[in-house]
Design goal:
heterodimer; A: 303 residues; mainly alpha; MetI-like fold; 2 domains; two-stranded antiparallel sheet; B: alpha/beta; D-Maltodextrin-Binding Protein, domain 2; five-stranded mixed beta sheet; four-stranded mixed beta sheet; 15 strands
Chain lengths: 303, 436
């Protein structure tokens, strides 16, 4: 309403109501972000500088002692390794699969709604229920996965009970769970693209693959970066299926960062160490998000 | 105009809230007779069955016998959830429950975090050592610390060996008794394992808390992993190393058990479905296994090289610290009631937990039950073979060090002596922060 006026008349103070209203409108958001995000972040960074655990009931300042202890611990290095591997494997696969499915479903098909629902369905299940279902599917002997392998005359595996397979088994659940969710983003993106460009490409005789590669993908670049960001954050915050399916075992083979934070705080009652681990997680996610969004701003120029 | 209305509404509601608060305070002050004590009781569920109905039944019986005391039962999840809830409540400055069932091995953690109070004066008033001697001594092994008694047994168990008598008969084995030692168990399992993979000779789970069933091998070898003080453990003695080798050999060498980590929750299902001829599981699963199995179930003891051996397990009743004096008196009455012979006998019959005292097995109800279900007398008869479960300061981490070593060896990632040496080093380093 009064915006052009305010900027055009230099030296005149804006009406007080107009100046206060925007602040009032963002106040609830600022309040909740401050109370539930900023303050806990500051507090966790502060707590990470103290020894506070079963042996040390009154907090003792230790500087970066908790961090030093973490990085000296081979189990924690394995946890970081597991987390990174999980993210590196699940993110590209779920994003690529989501794109392929979205391309396949972005056309007139019989029972299209049914297909879309089928792929989106895992996303609406709570992870805890999904993990419980997968727990039975992976069961040695009678689990569905091994039954299928048996039909193909392949040997059954103890999926969750073998250190070489357990993380891989969790990755499959992660990909299955989130691909449909990312597919919805891609479908929305595809339907927002203008038909004229594709008609022009068609007239110029571009093949389907050429069209996807040189037109669809570049136009969806912004969406890809957005989806990738969400996928990476999800990957680093994987915890439910670990808790339900493996408890982090065998011998830490499936322990990832967020599960380890939970375990360190609520099972080992080591507040200092859990806080230091949380700071590491926040730092990793912050760096990734900043880098990714600066990319996003530079590359997403199609609008 | 609108603002004016809001202001009025706010003022009106504030007055109403204030009035309500005042009348509530006045009301409670007027009616609070000294006899009206409302206790809160946290309990976890660790075995299948209608646990909440049973607990609710005991509580209404207690309330009838003790007018003026009410007990609010709170199902607090599993054992770890219960401990987490209570520790975080205390650290956050909240009000803990008055009584809680927690693992007997949580003792040092609970004392370290100043969460529980000793029961010495109450026990002294109830008859002191005479009163304590009524319980099985093995079930008080994790109750004493720093000269105090901190808990009384409630839902106690040991691992037992369940075996399929029909399969024993078909394999030409004596269906009236289980294996007497590790060597016999291997020989039996070899006869019971079917080459087509439809039945395994034995299944012993190793997820969740792998150290517990592993302790059976160790105690059956004439040793234990528990240290002489709560800041010590004994993970790398020759008997422990050879126990872990025995555990791993069942699948790696003798091929009578599936390889990898087996899941605790799957064992009873595999057993009642005939996929496993023998399993090691908690005695607390007895009622459920008997209900589901369509064959003759035999119950025997877990074994090591030298014979029978098992750790104790399960939960005790604790009184939380800082509750008012009238609550303490009521809480003690409730603890005494829940560990009394009649309740323990009934609890044992419906779950398979071992009753806290030998006298519970002399009650009329229990005698009738045992005549019908002789399997239920195996676990209490075997208490003489039971030794203390692993307990130390920082217990969850110490137990995990040993459990990780067990899993590493069972999955072929390490050998017993180096895995156990490393577990011993980790535990020693962690426990060096505690003076005793």
């Amino acid at each position: 309403m009064g915006r052009p006026q305010r900027f055009s008349r230099l030296g005149r103070r804006p009406r007080s109501g107009a100046a206060v209203l925007p602040y009032l409108l963002v106040l609830p958001t600022v309040f909740f972000v401050a109370v539930f995000t900023l303050w806990p972040t500051v507090r966790v960074a502060y707590d990470s500088l103290f020894l506070q655990n079963e042996a040390v009931q009154v907090p003792q300042f230790t500087g970066l002692g908790n961090y030093a202890a973490l990085f000296a611990d081979p189990a924690f290095r394995q946890v970081l390794f597991n987390t990174v591997i999980y993210v590196i494997v699940t993110v590209p696969i779920s994003v690529a699969l989501a794109l392929v499915i979205a391309l396949a479903l972005n056309r007139r098909l019989r029972a299209l709604g049914l297909f879309r629902l089928a792929f989106f369905y895992p996303a609406i299940l709570p992870m805890v229920s999904a993990a419980t279902i997968w727990l039975f599917m992976y069961a040695p002997g009678y689990g569905l996965v091994n039954v299928f392998l048996g039909i193909l005359h392949l040997p059954g595996q103890n999926w969750l009970g073998s250190p070489d397979l357990a993380l891989f088994a969790l990755m499959i659940v992660g990909v299955w769970k989130q691909t449909g969710y990312f597919m919805i983003f891609y479908l929305a993106g595809l339907q927002g693209l203008s038909r004229e460009i594709f008609e022009a490409a068609d007239l110029d005789g571009a093949s389907a693959i050429q069209t996807v590669r040189h037109i669809t993908l570049p136009l969806l670049a912004g969406m890809t970066l957005f989806v990738t960001t969400i996928a990476v954050v999800n990957g680093f915050e994987t915890v439910d299926q670990t808790y339900i399916m493996t408890g982090g075992g065998p011998t830490n083979a499936t322990t990832m960062l967020l599960f380890d934070i939970w375990q360190t705080l609520f099972s080992f009652f080591d507040l200092g160490k859990a806080s230091a681990m949380s700071v590491i997680l926040i730092a990793v996610l912050l760096i990734f998000t900043v880098v990714n969004f600066s990319h996003l701003e530079r590359r997403a120029t199609y609008e | 105009m609108i603002a004016e209305q809001w202001r009025r509404l706010l003022a009106a509601s504030a007055t109403a809230v204030l009035a309500a608060t005042l009348s509530a305070c006045g009301g409670s002050a007027a009616t609070a007779a000294p006899s009206a004590v409302a206790l809160t009781f946290y309990y976890p569920v660790a075995v299948p069955g209608p646990i909440t109905q049973l607990i609710d039944g005991y509580i209404s019986k207690f309330e009838q016998q003790n007018p003026g005391i009410t007990v609010k039962p709170v199902l607090s999840g599993g054992y770890p959830d219960t401990l987490t809830k209570i520790e975080t409540t205390i650290k956050g400055g909240g009000t803990p429950p008055d009584v809680a069932v927690m693992l007997s091995t949580d003792l040092y953690s609970l004392v370290d975090s100043n969460a529980i109070q000793p029961l010495d004066s109450q026990i002294a008033a109830a008859g002191g050592n005479n009163y304590l001697n009524g319980f099985y001594p093995a079930f008080l092994a994790n109750s004493r610390y720093q000269g105090h008694v901190w808990s009384l047994p409630f839902q106690r168990s040991t691992p037992v060996l369940y075996y399929n008598r029909d399969m024993f008969q078909a394999a030409g084995l004596d269906p009236t008794k289980g294996p007497a030692n590790y060597q016999e168990m291997v020989a039996d399992a070899q006869k019971l394992t079917k080459p087509d993979g439809s039945t395994w000779g034995i299944e012993i789970s190793s997820d969740g808390i792998p150290y517990w069933l592993f302790q059976s091998f160790v105690i059956g070898n004439g040793a234990n992993v528990v240290g002489s003080a709560p800041n010590q453990v004994s993970f790398d003695t020759p008997q422990v190393v050879s126990a872990l080798q025995d555990f791993a050999d069942l699948s790696a060498k003798y091929h009578v058990m599936p390889s990898g980590i087996l899941q605790w929750a799957n064992m009873p299902n595999d057993f009642v479905a005939g996929k496993a001829a023998m399993i090691w599981h908690s005695s607390g699963s007895l009622a459920n296994i008997l209900k589901q199995a369509k064959f003759n179930v035999g119950v025997s003891y877990t074994v090591g090289e030298q014979g029978f051996g098992a750790p104790t397990g399960g939960g005790n009743l604790y009184m939380l610290k800082g509750i008012p004096a009238d609550h303490q008196a009521a809480a003690w009455k409730f603890i005494q009631f829940m560990s009394s012979n009649d309740i323990q006998a009934d609890w044992s019959m419906h779950t398979g937990y071992i009753a806290a005292s030998p006298a519970a097995y002399q009650t009329a109800a229990m005698k009738a039950y045992l005549a019908k279900t002789p399997q239920a007398s195996v676990a209490p008869d075997g208490i003489e073979y039971a030794k203390a479960e692993l307990a130390a300061h920082d217990n969850a981490q110490v137990q995990k060090f040993l459990g990780d070593a067990v899993q590493a060896v069972l999955t072929g990632k390490s050998d017993p002596s180096s895995a156990l040496r490393s577990a011993q080093q980790q535990a020693t380093q962690l426990l060096s922060a505690f003076k005793n």
